[in-house]
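C-alpha coordinates as discussed.
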Protein backbone atom coordinates (compact mmCIF):
# COMPACT_ATOMS: atom_id res chain seq x y z
CA UNK A 1 0.00 0.00 0.00
CA UNK A 2 1.48 3.33 -1.05
CA UNK A 3 1.31 6.54 0.94
CA UNK A 4 -1.06 8.13 -1.64
CA UNK A 5 -3.44 5.19 -1.14
CA UNK A 6 -3.28 5.65 2.63
CA UNK A 7 -4.04 9.33 2.10
CA UNK A 8 -7.06 8.42 -0.06
CA UNK A 9 -8.49 6.17 2.66
CA UNK A 10 -7.86 8.89 5.23
CA UNK A 11 -9.61 11.44 3.00
CA UNK A 12 -12.68 9.21 2.68
CA UNK A 13 -12.75 8.73 6.45
CA UNK A 14 -12.45 12.48 7.05
CA UNK A 15 -15.40 13.03 4.70
CA UNK A 16 -17.50 10.85 7.01
CA UNK A 17 -17.75 7.65 4.93
CA UNK A 18 -16.29 5.49 7.70
CA UNK A 19 -17.44 2.07 6.55
CA UNK A 20 -16.29 2.56 2.98
CA UNK A 21 -12.88 3.65 4.27
CA UNK A 22 -12.72 0.57 6.51
CA UNK A 23 -13.59 -1.75 3.60
CA UNK A 24 -10.80 -0.19 1.55
CA UNK A 25 -8.41 -0.61 4.48
CA UNK A 26 -9.34 -4.28 4.88
CA UNK A 27 -9.06 -5.14 1.18
CA UNK A 28 -5.64 -3.46 1.06
CA UNK A 29 -4.23 -6.12 3.37
CA UNK A 30 -3.24 -3.51 5.97
CA UNK A 31 -5.06 -4.64 9.14
CA UNK A 32 -2.04 -6.71 10.24
CA UNK A 33 0.61 -4.17 9.21
CA UNK A 34 3.03 -2.95 11.88
CA UNK A 35 4.00 0.20 9.98
CA UNK A 36 3.25 3.30 12.13
CA UNK A 37 1.34 5.03 9.30
CA UNK A 38 -0.93 2.02 8.81
CA UNK A 39 -1.44 1.59 12.55
CA UNK A 40 -2.44 5.24 12.95
CA UNK A 41 -4.95 4.93 10.13
CA UNK A 42 -6.26 1.70 11.66
CA UNK A 43 -6.71 3.51 14.98
CA UNK A 44 -8.53 6.37 13.24
CA UNK A 45 -10.95 4.04 11.46
CA UNK A 46 -11.63 1.92 14.55
CA UNK A 47 -12.25 5.08 16.59
CA UNK A 48 -14.73 6.40 14.04
CA UNK A 49 -16.56 3.08 13.98
CA UNK A 50 -16.55 2.89 17.74
CA UNK A 51 -18.02 6.34 18.20
CA UNK A 52 -20.90 5.35 15.92
CA UNK A 53 -21.56 2.14 17.88
CA UNK A 54 -23.12 1.42 21.24
CA UNK A 55 -22.64 -0.88 24.19
CA UNK A 56 -20.05 -3.64 24.15
CA UNK A 57 -19.23 -3.12 20.48
CA UNK A 58 -18.37 0.53 21.15
CA UNK A 59 -16.10 -0.36 24.05
CA UNK A 60 -14.27 -3.08 22.12
CA UNK A 61 -13.73 -0.96 19.00
CA UNK A 62 -12.37 1.94 21.05
CA UNK A 63 -10.05 -0.43 22.94
CA UNK A 64 -8.72 -1.71 19.61
CA UNK A 65 -8.30 1.85 18.35
CA UNK A 66 -6.35 2.89 21.44
CA UNK A 67 -4.12 -0.19 21.16
CA UNK A 68 -3.38 0.59 17.50
CA UNK A 69 -2.29 4.13 18.34
CA UNK A 70 -0.15 3.04 21.29
CA UNK A 71 1.53 0.38 19.14
CA UNK A 72 2.17 3.01 16.46
CA UNK A 73 3.90 5.22 19.04
CA UNK A 74 5.94 2.43 20.57
CA UNK A 75 8.85 3.87 22.54
CA UNK A 76 9.09 6.95 20.30
CA UNK A 77 8.20 10.51 21.46
CA UNK A 78 5.41 10.49 18.86
CA UNK A 79 2.82 12.97 20.07
CA UNK A 80 0.27 12.35 17.29
CA UNK A 81 -0.56 8.70 18.09
CA UNK A 82 -0.19 9.33 21.83
CA UNK A 83 -2.74 12.16 21.97
CA UNK A 84 -5.19 10.09 19.97
CA UNK A 85 -4.71 7.16 22.36
CA UNK A 86 -5.30 9.50 25.31
CA UNK A 87 -8.52 10.95 23.92
CA UNK A 88 -9.87 7.53 22.95
CA UNK A 89 -9.24 6.29 26.50
CA UNK A 90 -11.10 9.35 27.83
CA UNK A 91 -14.08 8.82 25.51
CA UNK A 92 -14.08 5.15 26.52
CA UNK A 93 -14.66 6.08 30.18
CA UNK A 94 -11.04 5.64 31.30
CA UNK A 95 -10.19 9.15 32.52
CA UNK A 96 -7.27 8.15 34.77
CA UNK A 97 -5.56 6.33 31.92
CA UNK A 98 -6.24 9.22 29.55
CA UNK A 99 -4.85 11.81 31.94
CA UNK A 100 -1.70 9.78 32.59
CA UNK A 101 -0.99 9.69 28.85
CA UNK A 102 -1.84 13.41 28.56
CA UNK A 103 0.70 14.31 31.27
CA UNK A 104 3.32 12.28 29.47
CA UNK A 105 2.59 14.15 26.23
CA UNK A 106 2.95 17.53 27.92
CA UNK A 107 6.30 16.42 29.34
CA UNK A 108 7.48 15.40 25.87
CA UNK A 109 6.36 18.73 24.37
CA UNK A 110 8.04 20.76 27.10
CA UNK A 111 11.28 18.82 26.71
CA UNK A 112 11.42 19.72 23.02
CA UNK A 113 12.52 16.15 22.23
CA UNK A 114 9.50 15.14 20.19
CA UNK A 115 9.08 13.89 16.65
CA UNK A 116 8.77 16.61 14.03
CA UNK A 117 5.33 18.09 13.49
CA UNK A 118 3.92 21.38 12.24
CA UNK A 119 3.57 24.26 14.67
CA UNK A 120 -0.21 23.95 14.42
CA UNK A 121 -0.39 20.26 15.29
CA UNK A 122 2.07 20.61 18.15
CA UNK A 123 0.01 23.48 19.59
CA UNK A 124 -3.27 21.63 19.04
CA UNK A 125 -1.81 18.53 20.70
CA UNK A 126 -0.81 20.58 23.75
CA UNK A 127 -4.30 22.12 23.87
CA UNK A 128 -5.95 18.69 23.66
CA UNK A 129 -3.76 17.25 26.43
CA UNK A 130 -4.63 20.22 28.64
CA UNK A 131 -8.33 19.80 27.89
CA UNK A 132 -8.16 16.12 28.90
CA UNK A 133 -6.77 17.38 32.23
CA UNK A 134 -9.76 19.77 32.46
CA UNK A 135 -7.48 22.80 32.29
CA UNK A 136 -9.83 24.63 29.96
CA UNK A 137 -8.36 28.15 30.17
CA UNK A 138 -4.86 26.90 29.40
CA UNK A 139 -6.24 24.69 26.63
CA UNK A 140 -8.04 27.62 25.02
CA UNK A 141 -4.91 29.77 25.11
CA UNK A 142 -2.82 26.98 23.55
CA UNK A 143 -5.33 26.40 20.75
CA UNK A 144 -5.64 30.11 20.02
CA UNK A 145 -1.86 30.30 19.69
CA UNK A 146 -1.79 27.25 17.41
CA UNK A 147 -4.45 28.71 15.13
CA UNK A 148 -2.59 32.00 14.89
CA UNK A 149 0.36 29.99 13.52
CA UNK A 150 -1.86 28.55 10.72
CA UNK A 151 -4.82 30.93 10.36
CA UNK A 152 -6.22 29.43 7.15
CA UNK A 153 -5.71 25.72 7.90
CA UNK A 154 -9.48 25.45 8.29
CA UNK A 155 -9.79 21.71 7.66
CA UNK A 156 -7.20 21.01 10.35
CA UNK A 157 -9.00 23.39 12.69
CA UNK A 158 -12.26 21.53 12.00
CA UNK A 159 -10.75 18.16 12.94
CA UNK A 160 -9.50 19.62 16.21
CA UNK A 161 -12.77 21.33 17.10
CA UNK A 162 -14.80 18.17 16.49
CA UNK A 163 -12.49 16.28 18.83
CA UNK A 164 -12.70 19.01 21.46
CA UNK A 165 -16.50 19.02 21.39
CA UNK A 166 -16.52 15.30 22.18
CA UNK A 167 -14.17 15.87 25.10
CA UNK A 168 -16.22 18.81 26.40
CA UNK A 169 -19.38 16.73 26.27
CA UNK A 170 -17.69 13.97 28.26
CA UNK A 171 -16.37 16.55 30.75
CA UNK A 172 -19.85 18.02 31.14
CA UNK A 173 -18.60 21.40 29.94
CA UNK A 174 -20.38 23.79 27.58
CA UNK A 175 -19.90 22.57 23.98
CA UNK A 176 -19.50 26.16 22.75
CA UNK A 177 -16.36 26.85 24.80
CA UNK A 178 -14.23 26.97 21.63
CA UNK A 179 -16.88 28.27 19.21
CA UNK A 180 -15.04 31.58 18.84
CA UNK A 181 -12.34 29.62 17.00
CA UNK A 182 -14.70 28.11 14.43
CA UNK A 183 -13.75 28.51 10.75
CA UNK A 184 -15.78 31.17 8.91
CA UNK A 185 -19.27 30.28 7.78
CA UNK A 186 -20.35 29.14 4.34
CA UNK A 187 -22.84 31.43 2.61
CA UNK A 188 -25.44 30.55 -0.01
CA UNK A 189 -26.63 33.68 -1.81
CA UNK A 190 -29.58 34.42 -4.06
CA UNK A 191 -30.66 37.84 -5.26
CA UNK A 192 -33.02 39.65 -7.56
CA UNK A 193 -32.33 40.53 -11.16
CA UNK A 194 -32.51 44.20 -11.93
CA UNK A 195 -31.23 46.69 -9.38
CA UNK A 196 -30.92 50.50 -9.69
CA UNK A 197 -27.90 51.85 -11.55
CA UNK A 198 -26.79 53.58 -8.38
CA UNK A 199 -25.68 50.55 -6.37
CA UNK A 200 -24.71 52.50 -3.24
CA UNK A 201 -27.73 51.40 -1.20
CA UNK A 202 -27.41 47.78 -2.27
CA UNK A 203 -23.71 47.69 -1.44
CA UNK A 204 -24.24 49.37 1.93
CA UNK A 205 -26.89 46.81 2.87
CA UNK A 206 -24.71 43.94 1.72
CA UNK A 207 -21.71 45.37 3.57
CA UNK A 208 -23.74 45.16 6.76
CA UNK A 209 -24.78 41.58 5.98
CA UNK A 210 -21.20 40.48 5.33
CA UNK A 211 -20.16 42.11 8.59
CA UNK A 212 -22.70 40.06 10.52
CA UNK A 213 -22.20 36.72 8.76
CA UNK A 214 -18.41 36.88 8.18
CA UNK A 215 -18.38 34.08 5.59
CA UNK A 216 -15.24 32.45 4.23
CA UNK A 217 -16.80 30.91 1.12
CA UNK A 218 -19.90 31.88 -0.88
CA UNK A 219 -22.06 29.78 -3.21
CA UNK A 220 -24.59 30.96 -5.79
CA UNK A 221 -25.36 31.98 -9.36
CA UNK A 222 -24.41 35.13 -11.30
CA UNK A 223 -27.53 36.80 -12.63
CA UNK A 224 -27.30 40.50 -13.47
CA UNK A 225 -28.11 42.42 -10.32
CA UNK A 226 -27.74 41.37 -6.71
CA UNK A 227 -26.00 38.05 -7.49
CA UNK A 228 -23.13 39.72 -9.30
CA UNK A 229 -22.78 42.44 -6.67
CA UNK A 230 -22.62 39.85 -3.87
CA UNK A 231 -19.99 37.84 -5.78
CA UNK A 232 -17.86 40.95 -6.45
CA UNK A 233 -17.98 42.02 -2.81
CA UNK A 234 -17.09 38.49 -1.67
CA UNK A 235 -14.01 38.38 -3.89
CA UNK A 236 -12.95 41.86 -2.77
CA UNK A 237 -12.96 40.55 0.80
CA UNK A 238 -10.84 37.52 -0.01
CA UNK A 239 -13.68 35.00 0.19
CA UNK A 240 -13.75 31.87 -1.95
CA UNK A 241 -16.31 32.18 -4.72
CA UNK A 242 -18.17 29.05 -5.86
CA UNK A 243 -20.45 29.63 -8.85
CA UNK A 244 -23.26 27.20 -9.72
CA UNK A 245 -25.19 28.05 -12.89
CA UNK A 246 -28.47 26.21 -13.59
CA UNK A 247 -27.68 25.73 -17.29
CA UNK A 248 -24.83 26.26 -19.74
CA UNK A 249 -22.77 29.42 -19.37
CA UNK A 250 -23.83 30.67 -22.80
CA UNK A 251 -27.56 30.16 -22.19
CA UNK A 252 -27.42 31.68 -18.72
CA UNK A 253 -25.51 34.69 -20.06
CA UNK A 254 -28.04 35.11 -22.87
CA UNK A 255 -31.13 35.10 -20.61
CA UNK A 256 -30.00 36.31 -17.18
CA UNK A 257 -27.19 38.76 -17.97
CA UNK A 258 -27.06 40.14 -21.53
CA UNK A 259 -30.53 41.77 -21.56
CA UNK A 260 -29.37 44.13 -18.80
CA UNK A 261 -26.45 45.63 -20.70
CA UNK A 262 -22.85 45.03 -21.73
CA UNK A 263 -21.60 46.31 -18.40
CA UNK A 264 -23.21 43.37 -16.63
CA UNK A 265 -21.80 40.98 -19.24
CA UNK A 266 -18.26 42.24 -18.58
CA UNK A 267 -18.71 41.82 -14.84
CA UNK A 268 -20.16 38.33 -15.35
CA UNK A 269 -17.22 37.24 -17.50
CA UNK A 270 -14.68 38.67 -15.06
CA UNK A 271 -16.26 36.82 -12.12
CA UNK A 272 -16.19 33.52 -14.03
CA UNK A 273 -12.45 34.02 -14.53
CA UNK A 274 -11.79 34.87 -10.89
CA UNK A 275 -14.05 32.32 -9.17
CA UNK A 276 -12.51 29.40 -7.29
CA UNK A 277 -15.10 27.02 -8.70
CA UNK A 278 -17.57 27.22 -11.61
CA UNK A 279 -20.14 24.51 -12.24
CA UNK A 280 -22.64 24.85 -15.10
CA UNK A 281 -25.39 22.22 -14.91
CA UNK A 282 -25.55 21.70 -18.66
CA UNK A 283 -27.65 18.56 -18.35
CA UNK A 284 -30.64 20.72 -17.50
CA UNK A 285 -33.03 21.69 -20.27
CA UNK A 286 -32.22 25.28 -21.20
CA UNK A 287 -33.03 27.85 -18.53
CA UNK A 288 -36.32 27.06 -16.84
CA UNK A 289 -37.84 27.58 -13.42
CA UNK A 290 -37.15 23.89 -12.80
CA UNK A 291 -33.48 24.31 -13.76
CA UNK A 292 -33.15 27.40 -11.55
CA UNK A 293 -34.52 25.43 -8.60
CA UNK A 294 -32.06 22.63 -9.35
CA UNK A 295 -29.16 25.07 -9.47
CA UNK A 296 -30.20 26.60 -6.18
CA UNK A 297 -30.46 23.19 -4.54
CA UNK A 298 -26.99 22.21 -5.72
CA UNK A 299 -25.47 25.51 -4.55
CA UNK A 300 -27.20 25.15 -1.17
CA UNK A 301 -26.06 21.55 -0.87
CA UNK A 302 -22.46 22.46 -1.67
CA UNK A 303 -22.57 25.29 0.89
CA UNK A 304 -23.83 22.88 3.55
CA UNK A 305 -21.26 20.24 2.59
CA UNK A 306 -18.45 22.81 2.81
CA UNK A 307 -19.68 23.97 6.21
CA UNK A 308 -19.84 20.41 7.55
CA UNK A 309 -16.35 19.64 6.30
CA UNK A 310 -15.06 22.61 8.31
CA UNK A 311 -17.20 21.98 11.41
CA UNK A 312 -18.81 25.37 10.96
CA UNK A 313 -22.22 26.75 9.93
CA UNK A 314 -23.99 27.72 6.73
CA UNK A 315 -26.24 30.73 6.26
CA UNK A 316 -28.38 31.87 3.34
CA UNK A 317 -28.38 35.46 2.12
CA UNK A 318 -31.53 36.45 0.22
CA UNK A 319 -31.80 39.81 -1.53
CA UNK A 320 -35.43 40.45 -2.42
CA UNK A 321 -38.08 43.05 -3.08
CA UNK A 322 -40.45 43.95 -0.30
CA UNK A 323 -43.38 42.47 -2.23
CA UNK A 324 -41.66 39.12 -2.94
CA UNK A 325 -42.87 35.90 -1.36
CA UNK A 326 -40.23 33.31 -0.39
CA UNK A 327 -39.38 31.17 -3.41
CA UNK A 328 -39.20 27.35 -3.43
CA UNK A 329 -35.45 27.27 -2.76
CA UNK A 330 -35.73 29.58 0.24
CA UNK A 331 -38.64 27.53 1.60
CA UNK A 332 -36.60 24.33 1.34
CA UNK A 333 -33.69 25.96 3.16
CA UNK A 334 -35.96 27.22 5.94
CA UNK A 335 -37.63 23.80 6.19
CA UNK A 336 -34.29 22.46 7.44
CA UNK A 337 -34.29 25.17 10.16
CA UNK A 338 -31.22 26.81 8.64
CA UNK A 339 -30.49 30.52 9.21
CA UNK A 340 -31.46 33.13 6.62
CA UNK A 341 -30.22 36.72 6.43
CA UNK A 342 -32.59 38.89 4.42
CA UNK A 343 -31.83 42.12 2.59
CA UNK A 344 -35.02 43.75 1.36
CA UNK A 345 -34.69 46.49 -1.25
CA UNK A 346 -37.28 49.22 -1.68
CA UNK A 347 -36.57 49.70 -5.37
CA UNK A 348 -35.69 47.33 -8.17
CA UNK A 349 -36.13 47.12 -11.92
CA UNK A 350 -38.44 44.68 -13.71
CA UNK A 351 -37.00 41.63 -15.44
CA UNK A 352 -36.66 41.80 -19.20
CA UNK A 353 -35.34 39.79 -22.11
CA UNK A 354 -36.18 36.26 -23.27
CA UNK A 355 -38.63 34.14 -21.35
CA UNK A 356 -37.73 30.94 -19.56
CA UNK A 357 -37.90 27.53 -21.21
CA UNK A 358 -40.75 25.13 -20.34
CA UNK A 359 -39.51 22.15 -18.32
CA UNK A 360 -40.16 20.11 -15.20
CA UNK A 361 -37.94 18.28 -12.76
CA UNK A 362 -37.55 14.51 -12.84
CA UNK A 363 -35.35 12.12 -10.89
CA UNK A 364 -34.44 8.93 -12.75
CA UNK A 365 -33.40 5.61 -11.19
CA UNK A 366 -31.97 2.99 -13.54
CA UNK A 367 -31.07 -0.62 -12.76
CA UNK A 368 -28.92 -2.91 -14.87
CA UNK A 369 -30.52 -5.96 -13.27
CA UNK A 370 -34.16 -7.01 -12.89
CA UNK A 371 -36.11 -5.44 -10.05
CA UNK A 372 -38.01 -7.53 -7.51
CA UNK A 373 -41.35 -8.74 -8.84
CA UNK A 374 -44.40 -6.71 -7.80
CA UNK A 375 -42.22 -4.10 -6.12
CA UNK A 376 -44.27 -0.96 -5.36
CA UNK A 377 -41.70 1.69 -6.28
CA UNK A 378 -44.08 4.66 -6.55
CA UNK A 379 -42.58 5.93 -9.81
CA UNK A 380 -44.62 8.18 -12.06
CA UNK A 381 -43.36 6.29 -15.11
CA UNK A 382 -41.48 3.06 -15.86
CA UNK A 383 -39.67 1.90 -18.97
CA UNK A 384 -37.38 -0.95 -20.06
CA UNK A 385 -34.48 0.18 -22.23
CA UNK A 386 -31.35 -1.60 -23.44
CA UNK A 387 -31.77 -4.35 -20.87
CA UNK A 388 -32.22 -1.85 -18.02
CA UNK A 389 -35.23 -0.80 -15.98
CA UNK A 390 -35.79 2.96 -15.76
CA UNK A 391 -38.04 4.61 -13.16
CA UNK A 392 -39.03 8.28 -13.20
CA UNK A 393 -39.92 10.19 -10.02
CA UNK A 394 -41.28 13.66 -9.48
CA UNK A 395 -38.77 14.45 -6.73
CA UNK A 396 -35.23 13.48 -5.82
CA UNK A 397 -35.81 12.32 -2.24
CA UNK A 398 -38.52 9.84 -3.27
CA UNK A 399 -36.20 8.52 -5.97
CA UNK A 400 -33.37 8.09 -3.46
CA UNK A 401 -35.68 6.39 -0.96
CA UNK A 402 -36.67 3.94 -3.69
CA UNK A 403 -33.08 3.30 -4.79
CA UNK A 404 -31.98 2.58 -1.22
CA UNK A 405 -34.93 0.22 -0.63
CA UNK A 406 -34.06 -1.63 -3.84
CA UNK A 407 -30.43 -2.09 -2.77
CA UNK A 408 -31.38 -3.28 0.68
CA UNK A 409 -33.70 -5.85 -0.86
CA UNK A 410 -31.31 -6.85 -3.66
CA UNK A 411 -27.70 -5.98 -2.68
CA UNK A 412 -26.36 -7.26 -6.00
CA UNK A 413 -28.00 -4.45 -7.98
CA UNK A 414 -26.12 -1.60 -9.68
CA UNK A 415 -28.15 1.60 -9.73
CA UNK A 416 -27.83 4.95 -11.48
CA UNK A 417 -29.50 8.15 -10.28
CA UNK A 418 -29.90 11.25 -12.41
CA UNK A 419 -31.87 14.37 -11.53
CA UNK A 420 -32.46 17.36 -13.80
CA UNK A 421 -34.94 19.59 -15.57
CA UNK A 422 -36.54 17.80 -18.51
CA UNK A 423 -38.18 19.53 -21.51
CA UNK A 424 -41.93 19.06 -21.57
CA UNK A 425 -42.86 16.06 -23.70
CA UNK A 426 -39.40 14.42 -23.68
CA UNK A 427 -39.67 10.61 -23.69
CA UNK A 428 -38.28 8.49 -20.90
CA UNK A 429 -36.13 6.72 -23.50
CA UNK A 430 -34.21 9.97 -23.92
CA UNK A 431 -34.41 11.15 -20.31
CA UNK A 432 -33.18 7.83 -18.92
CA UNK A 433 -30.09 7.46 -21.12
CA UNK A 434 -27.63 8.97 -18.65
CA UNK A 435 -29.09 7.09 -15.66
CA UNK A 436 -28.49 3.81 -17.51
CA UNK A 437 -24.86 4.73 -18.14
CA UNK A 438 -24.48 5.60 -14.46
CA UNK A 439 -25.97 2.25 -13.43
CA UNK A 440 -23.50 0.40 -15.64
CA UNK A 441 -20.63 2.26 -13.99
CA UNK A 442 -21.85 1.65 -10.42
CA UNK A 443 -20.05 -0.97 -8.33
CA UNK A 444 -22.34 -3.78 -7.22
CA UNK A 445 -24.44 -2.75 -4.26
CA UNK A 446 -24.05 1.01 -4.80
CA UNK A 447 -25.73 4.02 -6.38
CA UNK A 448 -23.86 6.12 -8.93
CA UNK A 449 -25.16 9.66 -9.49
CA UNK A 450 -24.21 12.80 -11.39
CA UNK A 451 -21.95 15.17 -9.49
CA UNK A 452 -22.39 17.84 -8.18
CA UNK A 453 -26.12 17.60 -8.93
CA UNK A 454 -26.54 14.96 -6.24
CA UNK A 455 -25.16 17.40 -3.65
CA UNK A 456 -28.74 18.71 -3.54
CA UNK A 457 -29.40 15.85 -1.11
CA UNK A 458 -27.13 17.57 1.42
CA UNK A 459 -30.02 20.03 1.70
CA UNK A 460 -33.06 17.87 1.01
CA UNK A 461 -32.06 14.66 2.83
CA UNK A 462 -28.66 15.02 4.53
CA UNK A 463 -28.73 11.42 5.79
CA UNK A 464 -27.94 10.40 2.19
CA UNK A 465 -24.32 11.38 1.70
CA UNK A 466 -22.69 10.81 -1.67
CA UNK A 467 -18.93 11.16 -2.10
CA UNK A 468 -17.29 12.62 -5.18
CA UNK A 469 -15.68 9.71 -7.06
CA UNK A 470 -14.04 11.16 -10.17
CA UNK A 471 -15.45 10.77 -13.68
CA UNK A 472 -16.76 8.08 -15.99
CA UNK A 473 -16.24 8.12 -19.75
CA UNK A 474 -19.51 7.75 -21.67
CA UNK A 475 -20.91 8.30 -25.13
CA UNK A 476 -22.35 11.53 -23.70
CA UNK A 477 -18.90 12.74 -22.63
CA UNK A 478 -16.98 12.56 -19.36
CA UNK A 479 -19.46 12.63 -16.49
CA UNK A 480 -18.37 13.55 -12.91
CA UNK A 481 -19.97 11.14 -10.45
CA UNK A 482 -20.76 10.61 -6.80
CA UNK A 483 -21.14 7.22 -5.10
CA UNK A 484 -23.34 6.02 -2.27
CA UNK A 485 -23.27 2.64 -0.51
CA UNK A 486 -26.16 1.71 1.83
CA UNK A 487 -23.78 0.81 4.65
CA UNK A 488 -22.34 4.35 4.56
CA UNK A 489 -25.66 5.91 5.57
CA UNK A 490 -25.68 7.50 9.01
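Sequence:
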Amino acid sequence: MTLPALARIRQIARAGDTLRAWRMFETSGLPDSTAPEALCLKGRLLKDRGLRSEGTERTELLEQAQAAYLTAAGDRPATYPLINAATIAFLNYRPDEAQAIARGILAILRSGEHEQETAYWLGATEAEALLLLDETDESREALEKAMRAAPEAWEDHAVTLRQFRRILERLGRSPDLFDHLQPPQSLYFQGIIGIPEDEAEVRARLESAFGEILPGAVFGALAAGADIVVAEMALARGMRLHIVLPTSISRFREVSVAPYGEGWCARFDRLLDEADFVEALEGNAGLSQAAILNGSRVAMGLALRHARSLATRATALHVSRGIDEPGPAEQEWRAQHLPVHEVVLDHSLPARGAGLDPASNLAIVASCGPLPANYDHGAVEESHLEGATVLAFADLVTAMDCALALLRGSPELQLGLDQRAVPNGESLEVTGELAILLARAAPQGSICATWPQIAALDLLAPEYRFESAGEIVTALGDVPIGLFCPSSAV
